[in-house]
Amino acid sequence: MTLYIKNMVCARCKMVVKSEFEKLGLQTVSVELGEVELQDEINDAQKEILLKNLQSLGFDFLDDKKTKTIEKIKNLIVDLVHQKNGELKTNLSDYLAENLNQDYNSLSNLFSEIENTTIEKYFISQKIEKVKELLIYNELSLSEIADLLNYSNIAHLSNQFKKITGFTPTSFKQLKDKNRIEIENL
């Protein structure tokens, strides 16, 4: 049995969700971003308790096909930007179409309809949040950050960063209150 879970965006989310299943004695086969495969079926009472526990932690079940697809798109993008350090070897549309086995135009239209933004804007917002994170850590130069996130050059990264945040990367580093947005709120 597979359950689809909203707002799973990082490795810690996977650990927390897995822990909630274990607390109820439910054996998981795998826990991935957005989905948990269980060894056995669960009854309605277990599902209700699990839902309540997950909701208290900011997660939720996904039930309809459209919502599941949107969550899969988001999870692929979050994983690509925040976990795989932008290892995109093809363009984003091909990456998503290939990983979801669906036509990109359909995915794009669905995403725009449900999320009121485009996949590309969502992808860029994720990249900008990653840039903010890396700037705050202050371990990489702007050139290294641009390379890491597959920007063609520093100017492209800087222009996109300023367009989204209103600050240049250098100005952002000098701010005392560096406003970052949680991934699940993008």
UniProtKB/TrEMBL annotation:
Annotated ranges, domain HTH araC/xylS-type: 71-175
InterPro entries documented for this protein: Homeodomain-like_sf, HTH_AraC, HTH_AraC-typ_CS
Gene Ontology MF terms in the entry: DNA-binding transcription factor activity; sequence-specific DNA binding
PROSITE patterns: HTH_ARAC_FAMILY_1, HTH_ARAC_FAMILY_2
Keywords: DNA-binding, Transcription, Transcription regulation
Protein name: Helix-turn-helix domain-containing protein
